[in-house]
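Operator note (shift B, R.M.): manual run for Lrp/AsnC family transcriptional regulator requested after the automated queue skipped it. Running by hand, logging everything below so the morning shift can see what happened. Input copied straight from the record, untouched. If output looks odd, do not overwrite the archive copy; leave it for review.
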Amino acid sequence: MILDKYDKLILQTIQRQGRISNQELAEAINLSPSPCLRRVRQLEDAGLIDGYVALVNARELGLTLLSFIQISMDKHTPERFASFEKIVAEFPQVLECHLITGQSADYLLKVIVKDMDDFQQFLLNKLTRIEGVSGVHSSFVLKSPVKSTALPIY
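Run finished. Output pasted below as returned.
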């Protein structure tokens, strides 16, 4: 799908304001409501809009410790990787899981927990018990000066 200026404006706007009404969106991008809604539906159907979510304040839920964990695997086989990915996908503490290159690790996880005690329980009772995990290196986030879920639209 080739995006024109209205499609790009729609994507930029709904990334910042997911609950915006079609009327408000149409006004914001200087388009009438009917073609605006049609464009949004086309963007959804084309897979450019995956879905809509609410961003919940982690700190208000008591989730104050954010970490990045590098995981090394003992075997580099598709079966071992698939098994690991399936297991970590079930852990609500894991916000993101990335298979990476350029490091001694195979995976980079973004994990959020309540505190250091909670982290220790997660690490010792869940993560290190996954078959094939041979190394774990953790880094803890002190501050997040840039935080965004919006993708750049060119």
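Quick read of the result: Residues 22 and 33 are 6 Å apart (CA to CA). Strands lie at 65-73, 94-99, 107-113, 133-140.
Leaving this for review. - R.M.
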